[in-house]
């Protein structure tokens, strides 16, 4: 197995939540490696800006605005990608998000919203893409969880519970869908220096240094770190890997 095992050229890759942050970095990186990329988000203008960036670099991209909390919109999006590109080789479930919360102060509606944003839509996207991948003979699904899903994280209780659910869902889907030749794996990022995180840390260089001190590799992650893990799981290099979770956190424990 040589370096060509990491080749993604010509593959059709769907990246959810790709109008900003990790998803944006992964989508642009995949396009840069020659993949045909379908990008998704709820904010159309941000999505168009990412599409322009990919096109200007010579990449092939299909913007797919959709609310992934609505299963009918998810099914329509996957069908649109199939009709446009002819197939879907890789689905990267990146969309999600949260806010700082103590569980004692979190309302049931707030808990439901966090779980819906981080777990339900992963299941919706997997369910919608399965018939397409099964019909074409297989595919790859990469679910983005978090180190918060690997252990308790004060201030992120609902988020951590949802991301733990993503890990368990990944393992079960891998077992149930192996007969379709669909590999399902997971990535658990640590602290990634996205635009949003940069804004949070902009006012305190000391806070940034403290976060770096907690990480054995002594640096915060960047979207390219997640892209590299996605490339491995999306290509033939990982052809015998399914049901696994790769922590990409610089050796950090996950406690923010």
From TrEMBL:
It comes from the Bacteria. Residues 11-190 form the Ketoreductase domain. It holds the Pfam family adh_short_C2. GO terms for biological process: bile acid metabolic process. Keywords: Oxidoreductase. NCBIfam families: PRK07231.1. This is NAD(P)-dependent dehydrogenase (Short-subunit alcohol dehydrogenase family).
